[in-house]
Amino acid sequence: MPGRQQAASETMEQERKGEVSIGMYTYNHNSDSGFDVHEIYVKRSRFWVLLSYIGMVFLLASVCQLYLSKEGLSTGSVWSIAFGILVAKCLQYKPVKKESVVIMPTFGVQLEIHFWSGRVHRRFVPIGKILKPLLNECVTPVTCYWSLALLLRDEEELRLVFQKSHPPVKMLVPVWKALCKFLNSGCQTSSAVSEPNRSET
Amino acid sequence: MENVTGEGISDQIERFQTQLQMDGRGRKHRILMVSDFFFPNFGGVESHIYYLSQCLLKLGHKVIVMTHAYGNRSGVRYVTGGLKVYYVPWKPFLMQNTLPTLFLTFPIVRTILIREKISVVHGHQAFSTLCHEALMHARTMGYKVVFTDHSLYGFADAGSIHMNKVLQFTLADIDQAICVSHTSKENTVLRSGISPEKVFMVPNAVDTAMFTPSPDRLSCDEIVIVVISRLVYRKGADLLVEVIPEVCRLFPKVRFIVGGDGPKRVRIEEMREKFSLQDRVEMLGAVPHAQVRSVLISGHIFLNSSLTEAFCIAILEAASCGLLTVSTRVGGVPEVLPDDMVVLAEPAPEDMVRAVRKAIDMLPGIDPQVMHLRMKKLYSWDDVAKRTEIVYDRAMQSPQTDLLERLPRYLRCGAWAGKLFCLVMIINYLLWCLLEYLQPTEGIEEVPDIRPVHARLESVDDTCETQGKGI
After folding, report:
1. N or C: which end of chain B has fewer CB within 10 A?
2. Is residue B401 domain-resident?
3. How many domains does chain B have?
4. Consecutive sets of 10 residues in chain B, 471 residues long: mean pLDDT of each?
């Protein structure tokens, strides 16, 4: 019973902070320092990280074996190096730590990608360039997912808000609503898809 | 002619629907229409899927269409009436068909089935690889499946033998099947070995509002015969090459308008040059669907020379425009129109000429407006939708079966083919288990229902089910 109460209080605390966790994504919202910041954290899968390291070790071992052995470059060693590179590349975990949307009143929207290495990639979109935020259903040859995009003036392609991650629609809706409110575009707030985007390609 | 007029059909529908409601089974379905053939491509299958979907939406069902990408048209699109179309980015490789991969379409089909909360999967056309694969995956996942065959196929040539084996595989474990004519039903049963009790006959229909006759009655001083079809062997283009010069020789008042394009167009143009008929045979080339009516109403007689046809929507469109039809007596064509609206002939030049002569004699007694009104009563997409709804209800009543119960059905497909089909289904089942592990069903987000456009426009007490909008 105390455990259940503790879990409930944690959930309430998260909601109060504007924090929601679904699967590998955690959504956080704060409005400190006059900016409206929406953050999506991406959890690292330990399993894939471990496999990635195993791939790296396998690659290093193959290279060392090649240098230490007296024989020339054999077909087997070439294949093992190639396989090691492939394993390391394929199993390399996504280096994105979080993606955030910083809404700056009267200025525009800043889209940020924070990598685990510490590198931050920022793109600023001025308010005058944004026509409308759109919730799209994206279809790939193997799956479907929701994405949040900005329809920009004088640009043919949509600008994806979250480029490296595909957070669930429950996390995209509050960001979409905030962008609508910010742009004062009169988007309906009753539903994320009450007016589906009919021109999506 | 009882079948053509559809007498007693509405009574049967009402009786069956009452029975279903009493049994508590007259539910609203969530249907996924799957085919390689859909708009912007034009044809009988495409029109059938579109109009049927629109009418099912009006009846309160949820309908989703899944097809492959057409050029840059990929992703999710919404068409008239709030019909949602998934243009999956798989490129076609032959005759608008996607490459047969058996298993590679499973992830996307599974995702769509789960996120749209589908209850019935409806595949269209035996030639569509996407249709066969989607039905296979749906059966693996335990969904109810319905298949509609729109064409007639042979039994002897290599292509037909291969196609029939694929059809046998798909229909071995199907809940219900639909054919567009009695001839088509007979053909499908013979080709696939499916039980005739599982096969329903639901004809095509015509949008009579789109195909209306000319308000002014045409003069019979010059008789115009219209031909609109793809100029290919199957549509009898070679027959036209022999019929047109003979008709022009016998009837100086006759003029031809030929609409359509294809590999046999060259032969018709050569015939026109050879017999110096440039002033009497007008070649229009490819005619956009929106302009078909304007071509039809410029003529008196519609000539259909198909060598094989399961139903032939073209003659319905012509009859709706008030044209008297001359057609080859092939496939399901004799079932389509009443005897006083069509002149049938064997697919031979001399018999076709005789039929044209008979049609010219009948012309003074033909009233296009009366013909249009008769067509309006005979064929409606609403009726087709109601009859298809009954098929869905029947499919939902069929018992749920597991893999071990279903495998013997595939074994009966042939000594070697049966074992191969079983292996394919076992691999598909294992792939499903893998997909469930990698991406559990709970991890796939369900799509909120968008209320159909017609439900928003019409009154509150509309029969259409008002669907929730919130996430």
Report:
1. N
2. yes
3. 2
4. 45 52 61 93 89 93 93 88 92 83 93 94 92 94 94 83 88 92 92 90 90 83 89 90 92 91 90 88 90 92 92 92 93 91 92 91 89 89 92 90 87 88 94 91 82 47 36 34
